[in-house]
Write a structure and sequence with these properties.
Blueprint lengths: L1 E5 L6 E5 L7 H11 L8 E5 L2 H6 L21 H13 L3 E8 L6 E4 L4 H7 L6 E4 L14 E8 L3 H17 L13 E10 L6 E3 L12 E5 L2 E4 L5 E3 L9 E11 L10 H10 L1
Parallel strand pairs: 2-3, 2-4, 4-7, 5-6, 6-8
Antiparallel strand pairs: 1-3, 5-7, 8-13, 9-10, 10-11, 12-13
């Protein structure tokens, strides 16, 4: 793991690239930023996480780094040890992880356990959508109280690098590391309700478009050439033919613009407190 620090003092802001080694856009954006020799108003860390997987061009070496947080320093699996080290680096930081996908060309943000800190940062990223993955967030970085992700675009593309760089700059402006006003696009807010899994040995084909409503009775996919029909409305997220061996994508509900959400604390601590009260 590489950790680059800009500015003087103890950083409370971090950008993380290469959580997955086959998603290099975050690393390229970090390199581009460091090459500018930036003059910053407060310190920040820029982290290249999974160097070993990045060098091999694979998602992970032993296990998915973004599914095994907080990690284990005594594990015999490389990513579980790395997850522990990464957690130590981002502890107490407002952090942005940069990813890419094969299912969507434009950037969007991912959160879980939404709180005001995450909401404020997400509101100033150059994205059209913010997706809440709370229901499936176990072991992911977005569970952390100050951490959110951006999917920068199509994996391996030059556009994803450009989008990642734009998101990096906007994030650093919104957190006071860089001067200047970040964008304020007021993205739509989508709440994931459930994953859709593939059955082994079957061929899936997505007929719709991510973030475009699927209505009751609509054909949105085929499996072995036979149509899959929606029983209720949903908005597809990260749905694609070949993006994952097991996962076809996610169903979500569109909650409206981010700015229209009530001021409710959806942090992990608040959710746990509500469960205790019940």
């Amino acid at each position: 793991m590489q950790v680059h620090t800009v500015g003087d003092g103890t950083p409370e802001v971090a950008v993380v690239g290469a959580i997955h080694g086959d998603e290099p856009c975050g690393v390229r954006a970090i390199e581009r930023f460091l090459d500018t020799e930036p003059d910053v108003d407060r310190p920040a860390k820029l982290i290249v996480a999974n160097e070993r997987a990045l060098d091999r061009g694979v998602r992970y070496v032993d296990t998915d780094l973004n599914r095994c947080l907080p990690g284990d320093p005594e594990s015999d699996q490389y990513e579980e040890r790395l997850a522990h080290d990464l957690m130590a680096e981002v502890q107490g930081c407002t952090a942005l992880g940069i990813h890419s996908t094969v299912s969507y060309d434009r950037p969007f943000a991912n959160v879980a356990y939404l709180n005001e800190r995450k909401r404020e940062v997400a509101a100033h990223l150059p994205v059209e959508q913010v997706v809440d993955f709370t229901v499936v967030a176990d072991g992911r970085s977005v569970e952390l109280p100050g951490f959110l992700d951006v999917e920068a675009g199509h994996q391996g593309s030059a556009a994803a690098v450009d989008n990642a760089y734009d998101c990096l700059l906007a994030f650093l402006r919104s957190t006071g590391v860089l001067p200047g006003e970040p964008p304020a696009p007021d993205p739509g807010y989508y709440e994931v309700t459930e994953p859709i899994y593939k059955e082994p040995g079957r061929t899936y084909h997505f007929l719709g478009e991510n973030f475009v409503r699927v209505g009751p009775g609509d054909r949105y996919a085929t499996v072995d050439g036979e149509p899959i029909v929606a029983d209720e409305e949903f908005w597809p997220v990260l749905m694609s033919d070949e993006g994952h061996d097991v996962l076809f994508g996610y169903r979500s509900t569109h909650r409206g613009a981010l700015s229209t959400l009530p001021d409710v604390d959806h942090s992990a601590e608040a959710v746990a407190d509500e469960a205790t009260d019940d």
